[in-house]
Amino acid sequence: MFKQTPVAAAVSMALWSLAAMPAFAQQQPAGEAIQTVEVTGIRASMAKSLSVKKDATANVEVITAEDVGKMPDKNLADSLQRLAGVAVRTDYDEAEKVSMRGTNPDMSLILFNGHTVSGGDWYVADQASSSRSTSLSLMPSSVLNQAIVYKTSQANIVDGGLAGTINVTTRKPLAQKEQLGGVISVGAVYAELPGKSAPDTTATVNWKNEAGTFGVIVQGFAEKRYVRRDSVSRFAYGTSSGWDVINTTTMKGITDESLAGTGLKAADLNGVRLPGSMSSEFVEGVRDRKGGMFSMQFKPNQQLDVSMTGFHSSMNANNHGRLTSGGIYSMLLGKNDPLGGTSAAAINTNSNGQQVFAQIKNPVIVKETTLYGHELRVLKAADIVFPAGTTPQFVGNSEGFYRDGANATSSFLDLDGKYRVNPDLTVKALASITRGVGKTDRDAGTTFARYGTGFSYALNGLYDAPDTRYIGAGSNVPGLNADGSGYRMVGRAASGIKTTDREKSFQLDAEYGLNKGVIQSLETGVRYADHDRVSGRFGPAFKSATLALQGQEGVMPYPADFGEGLGGGNWDRTGFTYSPEAVKAYFDSQTKVTTPEFERRVNSEIDMRERQTAAYLMANLEWDKWSGNAGLRYVRTQVNAQISTPIPAGACDRTEPGKPATTCAAYPGAITTAGDAVSFYDGAVWNPKSGIMYYKAPTDRTFNNLLPSMNLRYEMEKNMIVRLGASKTIGRQNYNVLGAGFGTPVCDANGCRVTGPNPDLKPLTAKNVDLSWAWYFARRSMVAVNAFHSKIDGYVKTGATGTSTVDLQDPRDQTVRTFAINSSSQQGAKISGLEVSYEQPFGETGFGFTSNVSRAKTKVDDGRPMVGASDWAGNLGGYYENDVMSARLVANYRGEYVSSSTAPSPTANSQGLSVINGVAMPTAPTMAAPVTTLAFSANYNITPQLVLSFNATNLTNAKRAQYRYSEEEPQKLDVSGRQYYLNLRYKF
């Protein structure tokens, strides 16, 4: 390995995004001998990564895919989580969203070949979240040439990565060794929990002409995997979900007499934390990913280099399942609402003409200290039972679903050109277009109420399922028994969603070599991006208001091994569900075709355009043992949002489906053709005044930011490097806090309020300092320590009443009044952390190891933990490689963090206050508990061209747990099973 000058390495990586080693070779000074060390696989990949990291001016982490398949990684997020300071969010044991240095994924910017990439989400909740984070589940690891993770910023990097930027480069045809070559991989994956196998195939062909001036790479992939998740939780649909406290004033069955023999009085239970439900959930689906990539490169001489790269990936991810939950709150409050309602207006229980309240028998109460330091009590175990002789009452719900047409796509096309005008001046242009879509054609499900006489539970800790038992509730199949126990169908719902994200961008960069004094060269450039985000729900019209029963056809019991990986002893795992075909057939029979316009639900829509303009100037510096860069980037962000705003009831006539569109003089912009979930039953008289109608209110905001940056690199010794980075970075707010629609207006004695967005939210900014030391003490060996600190301004605080107002109709008297918008505000936050990395081979034995650990301590002004932030993360891996085979075992650890959507609702109370026992304290977040995963990869060279590979992920079948105020309040526990991959790879 030869050594570049630091400036040359930095320019090669950051400006041109051409960090592949063949590009280095072209810059080798004349007359200097090149030392060739022919290694492949794990060792070659590690050597390249360390070489790039060592020569970089900025503090970076690097992954180089010298030989794809040598690591147990199936997508880019799998690979990135191996790096120090990088953590991932995992769904169904597949890494998807990437976060850096104790932040949530929205604060990290992911680039491909230097430009942003739009990607869709496959899961319906993520499709609606309007997050800026990029899902890497669509990006197979086989597309990777190199990924550079910038932990410190510099002026020539695309803005938007508040915590850091990841630039993934794809392969260039002229950088390949062979004139004609490629790799074909054929295999299968076996998912242990669903017990199903699926094909796993990729193919890559590269060609270049004899002169090495033109080349093409074409790649295709078809990778399918069945998934399943078994869960127990405190979740339920309706007001009975989550946790609350016992109140004997409203829970009238809790009396001194009912607690006789326990040593407790009714008053002793007041204020004790109580789980709202005990639920079990079975979800099964598929991840069917297909797509491809091509790259064409033309380099007629050393002055001109032009390439075009295209990529498309599509993943079908239909999924189905059922949630079975107990209605603890409803029972204690004497409510018999079939959907779990617990308000004063909800239906009361009725046994022999009397309202009845469930009692608490055999209570076990424990103390907890919340993560905020408050002392609380928790009802760890109890029998929740109605008095003897009570007829069956509501004891829970069972809700099934089938998400048909769940699909995510991601595509981009870029044209990249570099021209060396003269020995001192080089210019580069990059134009790109990208589009991502996440959609679910129909998320449909039915709800059953369950009737019985009691429910019993006992919490068994964070990592074991609780004991649960339904009392007097009959068998676990649809239908009521003669005594009134069992299941009764009470609800149905169907809707779809589609989110489209697209961007067009162009950037022009230039570098002028000075080679005078400290300043070696100057870089300058401009960039413009035009970004659109459109999202909304839609729903079919039902034929009739009558709830047609979903009978016994298509009923399926939960799998016989349901919940075996969850631990625990006696818990109810006998739920039923319906086959996807049965759910689809039921809703096909109950719905009818209207028009796409009528199916719109305007109140859910987000319609935004964001234009980003940037210009920068950066000086590359070098003197003696010092090198570095200093620069300034100017950024303008223009946000245009079309906000769905409700119209006073009855002000406009809604258009009947199939009829010409009506207009509204009072509100010319009224969307009269949208149904917004109003009924359109067969034979019913059309009511044009029904429901809430909306119009789009435009907003236009412009934000300007100056982002200075500096990176210094000092060679203490030949292989010992110290770096200092200081910068200001920007991160833009999630789309929904800027442009979500308004909710239902409410007026009372305290005034009028409405939930809605806050278009005045400015982008987040962070002032960052980073200090690192690295010692490359031997070949493929390194020890490094990084310390960093970031001060963030503009961190979103949800559930706050801001200064913005809107004029709407008072629902009490239909008078137009000024409403305060209950929305999001902003606050400050800080991140301080330390990262340590150490990797080394064991002499010439072929054995070696990699390791890193990071600590990132976050602090938000209001005292709450930062969403998505893990204090601790780490990796430990061992490998062996010789000329015949290689093997790698990698453990990944992620500490606890706030598990919530990376794009919370602007009106959510996740950062509000809850009053418990008369004390106002922060609302309990949902915390994801620490988790460690283990993955293995082995490759055997049958011949130099033919390789047999075996990969296994989630070897320990890790349990993923969540809790609320403390581990005494376990919230969710799930497992997804192990996955095994066997592939035969032929290289030619």
UniProtKB/TrEMBL annotation:
Keyword Nuclease listed: no
One Gene Ontology cellular component annotation held by this UniProt entry: cell outer membrane
DNA repair as UniProt keyword: no
Keywords: Cell outer membrane, Membrane, Receptor, Signal, TonB box
Family per similarity comment: Belongs to the TonB-dependent receptor family.
Subcellular location, principal: membrane
NCBIfam families from the UniProt entry: TonB-Xanth-Caul (TIGR01782)
Native species: Massilia cavernae
Compartments where located: Cell outer membrane
Signal peptide: 1-25
Stretches assigned to the TonB-dependent receptor-like beta-barrel domain: 450-955
Transmembrane regions listed in the UniProt entry: none
Domain (TonB-dependent receptor plug) ranges: 53-164
Protein's name according to its UniProt entry: TonB-dependent receptor
